[in-house]
Amino acid sequence: MVKISWMKLKGSQNLRLRLLLSTLSSTPILIEDIRADATWPGLRPHEVSFLRLLEKISDDCLVEINETGTKLKYKPGIVMGGKHLIHDCGVIRSIGYFLEPLILLGLFGRKPLCIRLRGITNDSKDPSVDTFRSTTLPILKRFGVNPEGLELKIESRGVAPGGGGEVILSVPILQDSLRAVTWIDEGMVKRIRGVTFSTRVSVQFENTMIHAARGIFNCLLPDVHIFTDHKAGLLAGRSPGYGISLVAETTSGCFISADNSVCYAQGEEEADIEDEAMQDLIPPEDTGEQAAGVLLGEIEQGGVVDSTHQGLLFLLCALCPQDVSKVRVGKLSPHGIEVLRHLRDFLGVKFVIKPDPSTETVILKCVGCGLKNLSRKVS
């Protein structure tokens, strides 16, 4: 029997990122002291759900968790992909939490991936499924991912605390590897698109959000279109809520996004839902204005992607062939910095970081690790 060499890590932070990089680099990991001193120690339900998802799409994957959940052994297998897969994401974190790692793993699978995910489609913690469809997928196309077969279909909406949303994600496999990019021109914003949603509330909420957001954008540019997506009945999930997702497209083909959603208290706060939830719900007018303000802030910050997509951008650059990739981002986000550190530890990829004082942005360069899709079925 071959002795397994484990990479030893501590703590619960960046667990999803560690599991993703462990799978891509085929590095077995041993994580200890997972919330060991917390009142409720160990892995959270959404983290266990993500491990179960990895088991579904992989073959020969080993997951061992001790009784208290504070110690995790993970030995990655071969990403198989496949069709007609179904996964319940639960109601602690939204579907967006699972989408980003899932699409990267799907690219390096043996067969194209088609999976139905159930749970919360829109919340305030994770990027919404609308943002994923309008912004994340175009970023992947930049790196040479085939647009045919790359799709996210929203079947039904679901907000916290009940969930009930459903999406279908389709990811093609890479025939060889990603494509290195030089992507430093942000361009100027030429148009703004968006979509509002509402579930189990009046459709008038959406019109109010659109009016508030357009009131800000129309002072700056004329090409603003925000569509509505009102759901009722079974397509509206189990809880009332509403929200808006906005995306700015630039002259150089960059997509900058922001979203905002309002729903009742999350699971841990259900005891206070009667008293506090109604007070804390933001009116639809403020929801639209806040989303517009966040989007303008992201545009002002500069860079070819918004702050929530920095981590994905760095991951894609690191997975490219052994060629130089060069990208521009605004102020480095805390998550982006953690991604850079983990890429150094797992893939041995180091980025050269050079601030650009004239635009207050940062230019990053790296040589990719040259990861190829060796899992794919050779016909």
From TrEMBL:
One term of GO molecular function: RNA endonuclease activity
SUPFAM superfamilies in the record: EPT/RTPC-like
Gene3D superfamilies: RNA 3'-terminal phosphate cyclase domain (3.65.10.20), RNA 3'-terminal phosphate cyclase, insert domain (3.30.360.20)
Keyword field: Nucleus, Ribosome biogenesis
RNA 3'-terminal phosphate cyclase domain location: 8-353
Source domain of life: Eukaryota
RNA 3'-terminal phosphate cyclase insert domain ranges (all copies): 185-300
Protein name in the entry: Probable RNA 3'-terminal phosphate cyclase-like protein
